[in-house]
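step: validate -> pass
step: tokenize input -> pass
step: predict -> running
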Amino acid sequence: MLCWLYSMNDKNNTPNNINDIRLGDYQKYYSIIKANEDASDEFLETKLLEIFCGLNYTQIKELPVDLFQNMTSQIYNIFDVKCPLTRRFSMIGTDNVEVEFGFIPNLDKITMGEYIDLNNYFEEMDTLHKAMAVLFRPIHKSYKNREKYKISSYEGTEFFSNVMKDMPLGIALGAKVFFYRLGTKLSKAILNSSRLLMEEETLSEEESNLLMRNIDGIKNFTRLQEEMLYGSTKLL
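step: predict -> pass
step: emit ->
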């Protein structure tokens, strides 16, 4: 199986920006926070430096207190940024071959398989890399340096999901924010249309009850999207 090198920043240094952090490392730290909600700040900050700076426990214990605090503060500040949608990015494989990945160019033409997988994989942080493997796929070399591009056909996430664990975190979170906003807009449009239908048309009691259940479902979906989006960064 092909592995991918992290080409943005040396793993042994404190990251300077959010794209110096890999999605897989973020998922790892997120899972530690979720599993240790009552843990001390010292424990979580030690794990922070272990995962994002590549330091072991002995090295961390030998750090001067002021340096330890500066490093942890720098990492926390990195997460306090807005991540825009990035449509193209590149990674380098262990064979030193660079591959460019592109965001789905036309969401209107998304397949049912892609849609179902996105809904499933966006629900949890530990499957976000699989969602990224749906959204980002290799761009054909003939489209290099061209504004428009085509990506490879979707064949599931079995291979590229592991690759996406090495993608820059900022790009992954930017795509997640984009889909949250897109889903919110669609939900609001559906809710407004449903309310107009109830006001303008005479519905039976059964039809009104069914419509109200659908509206409640859309509201719950929107709330879930908000929790998914903001819950992960609030933990950090």
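step: describe -> Residues 88-170 form one domain.
step: cleanup -> pass
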